Amino acid sequence: MLTFSVFPSPKVSDTVVEPYNATLSVHQLVENADECMVLDNEALYDICFRTLKLSTPSFGDLNHLISSTMSGVTCCLRFPGQLNSDLRKLAVNLIPFPRLHFFMVGFAPLTSRGSQQYVSLTVPELTQQM
């Protein structure tokens, strides 16, 4: 089972029980998930502020960023090709020990929803975004 989990941040938290929910759910992720892609809520907001230059990011902006990342990670599972894979092969190649199955994901190029068609990035800009 592949999961995408957004971990809360004290700087961005608007609910008192977010840290408790995250703490209590980690045990279930360790025991029952095969691969966990971890997303940091504070890092998502920082990406929206600094890279995408959004003054007040909405949940739609954060969800767009997360969905782009999820699409990139699962691309090899959804489309045929030479790099075609399944969840078992992905787990065998990425996980050295059974309990070490938490991954931080990275994605580039980072573009806002309205400017995807108009952005031209150089190689140094792409590597800086990673």
Automatic annotation (TrEMBL):
GO molecular function, one term: GTP binding
Occurrences of domain Tubulin/FtsZ GTPase (ranges): 2-48
Transmembrane segments: none
Gene Ontology terms: biological process: microtubule-based process
Alphabetized Pfam families for the sequence: Tubulin (PF00091), Tubulin_C (PF03953)
Residues forming coiled coils: none
Swiss-Prot/TrEMBL keywords: GTP-binding, Microtubule, Nucleotide-binding
Family, as annotated: Belongs to the tubulin family.
This protein's name: Tubulin-like protein
Source species: Schnella guianensis
Gene: Tub
